[in-house]
Structure formats: C-alpha cells, structure tokens
Design a protein that fits this description.
With about 400 residues, this protein is α+β, with helices and mostly antiparallel strands. About 30% of the residues lie in helices and about 15% in strands. The strands form three sheets. Strands 1, 2, 3, 4, 9, 10, 11 and 12 form an eight-stranded antiparallel beta sheet that branches. The chain has a three-stranded antiparallel beta sheet with strand order 5-8-6. A two-stranded parallel sheet has the order 7-13. Strand 10 and strand 11 form a beta hairpin. It is globular. It starts with a strand and ends with a helix. About 50% of the residues are buried.
C-alpha cells in the first residue's frame, strides 16, 4: 500500500486507509485534509513531485485549477455580507463599462451562476491563452462582448471568464484585486498557504502539474457536435472552439512563473489541501477565532441557480446525463462531484482537485493533486471514491 505521511484523529483511520488505497496507482502526489467543527482531524500526503523529482510533502503547493472559483466566490459573499455587493443589482452599478451590447440590466447573480452568456472570449477579441495574464485586456473584452444567449435563460460553464467577470466586480467594490482581497481578508487571518497570484518567495514549493487523463481535441469536439446535428458555424460554437487548447499548452502557461504570478480567479489559485480545507471550514464555523461567512449567507449562496435550465441552443442537443449544479459561485452536489450529500457546497478542479464543506456535519475537505487524471465525463475521480466513502462512514452518514 502507498506510503502515506501525516496524521488522523481517532475515528478517522479508515479515511487514511482510503486515501492510501486511492493513491496506489497515481504517478503523482496528493494531499488530503479534513476539518470537523473547526478542528483538523485528517492531514495526509503522499507521492511525488514528478517534475522536480522529489517527494510530495505537507508543504508542497500546486495549482488548484477551478477550485479557485470557490475562493473567488467566498470573497464575493464576504462583500455581500458586508452590504457592499447586491447580487440582484445590475453589474453596471459596480462596473459601468459593462453596459455594452445588451448587458445593461444583467444582475450580478448571472455572473456567479454561469448564466451570463459570456462563457468564452469572442473570436474577434483576439484573446488567446497567453492573454489570460492580461487582466485589463480580458475584462475590457468582456465588457464589450455581446452575450451568446439571452442572459438568465440558459447556462454554460464559464470556465475562464467567470474569474474576470466576478473578479472585476470584486475589484470595483473592494478597491483591490481578487488576489489582494483574498490575501488580506481571508488568507492572512486564517494563516493559509493559498494564493491567487503567487509571491515569488513561494515559487520553490510548487509541484507543477502533468496530465495522464483523457483529452478531447478540437477535431474530436467538432466531430462529436456534428454527430448531434450541431451547426459548427454558429456563433456560440465558434466562440467555444476559439478557446480550445491542449492540456500540455495550458499546463506550460499556467506553470510558468508568469502564470503563477498572474491573477486568473477562475483557475490559477495555488495552495495545499490544509489551506483549502481550512478556508471552507471557516465558511461554516469558527476556526482559530475566524469565521468568514454567516450561516444565512451560506444558505443564500447555496440556493440552486441553474436546476431545470439547459445549455443554450444549439448545445442543448448534446446529452447531459449529469448536468452541472451551481449556487452563487459554488458548485453543488451532483453525481460526478458527490461531496458529502445535498447540502454540500464547494468546487472541483480540472484533473481531480476538490474542496468543499458540509454544514450539517461540520465537515470541510481539501484534496490537492498534481496529476491531472480525472475523467469528469465518466463520473467521480477514482482517487476520491475510497476516502469519501470512509469519511461518510466516519461521521455516521
């Protein structure tokens, strides 16, 4: 069985065994941390930082991919709780330049719930992968862009644009960037090793990510959509295909020093499992004297926003056996991201990262890895299944 470092509290030994079992065939490294009612009860790590040929330790940090969206959502809801941000107000109240091309009345909640119709940069913007490092260019392009569907009537995952959309609102309201707000208002009081925009002094700790999972190429995507009778010349399809890059290209850009230092609040957060779990623990209770959000704030944030909606035309022709579920910025429990049941909230990340909280049990979880092995089309990551099952049993679920 895999050699696992770390500790578990009494009653959580099966979680350690599940983690060890899950990591047996993983070519990379991973960390798992669990808090219960503000106390750390599981803190584990194992495997290798493959790129640097060294162990994956308790102090290793790595890219969190879309787990970053949960960090950004937490920042937004702190502003909501302070009365500085109203999710039902038009975006233009905070970001006047957003009023172009039919977006004047769009409420902030559409940005948080992937209903804005701005799920990717329009081809005419000229924005490519490297331009994701240019905040002003990306936000200006989105302010100018015409929505790809009538906002609010359909949803589609805003994989990259979510961060610029929600992040620019946060910047306008708070007077500081998302990364600065997170560092000062969340990471500092909780003493987290978690950043959106990594300081150079922490660079030596990073385990770069690598990919052993499946990859859908542009040609395969086109063939699949053609098979379902989707017009590849439609504006929405052209826009979607405009952002398709290989995982190797993405990893090369994100794992550069420039990629680490930039603020891409949808996907380039960097940290460890301890910090991810601790942040979520502080959203549902007090941790080391700090509580980030009130119970009623979390309840509002977790109200389902897209249940019953479909993807926009013509993408609604695609099968959706396990549709995504979102509250206001947080991902909600579903088949491929089961968390700990229906009241769970958090966010998964490409390749297999996962952070979430379950208010009823007081459980908060962070799982971080550097091997992008998760095939989300097939269901939950195989590396989640043994320890999530053991965790449920440990807390009597």
């Amino acid at each position: 069985m895999t050699n696992v470092g770390g500790t578990v509290e009494k009653g959580f030994e099966a979680v350690r065994d599940g983690f060890a079992q899950a990591q047996e065939k993983d070519a990379g490294g991973a960390q798992l941390c669990v808090y219960r009612k503000g106390k750390k009860v599981v803190d584990l790590w194992c495997g290798r930082d493959k790129a640097n040929d060294r162990p994956f330790t308790a102090d290793t940090i790595t890219i969190l991919m879309s787990c970053t969206k949960g960090l950004t959502a937490t920042a937004a809801h702190m502003l909501v709780e302070r009365g500085l941000l109203d999710v039902d107000a038009p975006v233009t109240r905070y970001w006047p330049e957003f009023d172009r091309n039919g977006k004047a009345g769009m409420p902030v909640r559409y940005l948080l719930s992937h209903r804005a119709g701005l799920m990717a940069f329009a081809p005419e913007s000229g924005i490519g992968l490297r331009d994701f490092l240019d905040w002003n260019r990306c936000t200006a392009a989105l302010a100018e862009m015409e929505p790809l569907w009538t906002p609010g009537t359909a949803y589609m995952y805003h994989a990259i644009t979510y961060g610029y959309l929600v992040g620019e609102v946060i910047r306008r309201v708070a007077g500081k960037s998302v990364g600065q707000f997170f560092a000062e208002e969340i990471a500092k009081p909780l003493q987290l090793d978690l950043w959106i925009g990594l300081p150079e002094r922490e660079e030596h700790r990073v385990a770069p990510q690598f990919n052993t999972g499946p990859e859908l190429t542009r040609e395969q995507m086109q063939a699949m959509m053609s098979g379902f009778g989707i017009d590849l010349n439609s504006r929405i399809i052209k826009t979607m295909l405009n952002i398709v890059v290989s995982i190797d290209e993405l990893n090369k850009e994100l794992d550069s020093r420039a990629g680490h230092a930039a603020e891409i609040p949808a996907g380039n957060g960097i940290g460890n499992a301890r910090s991810l779990a601790k942040m979520y623990a502080a959203t549902i209770g007090e941790v080391d004297g700090v509580r980030l959000l009130k119970r009623e704030t979390i309840a509002r944030a977790c109200e389902p926003q897209i249940d019953g909606l479909s993807m926009p035309e013509p993408l609604s022709k695609l099968p959706a056996p396990d549709p995504m579920r979102f509250g206001l910025g947080y991902e909600l429990n579903r088949g491929s991201v089961p968390m700990l049941g229906d009241v769970s909230f958090g966010h998964s990340g490409a390749g297999g990262r996962l952070g979430f909280a379950h208010p009823e049990s007081g459980i908060a979880v962070g799982y971080v890895c550097n091997n992008m092995a998760w095939d989300y089309m097939r269901g939950p990551d195989d590396r989640w299944v043994p320890w999530t099952k053991a965790l449920r049993e440990s807390v009597g679920m």
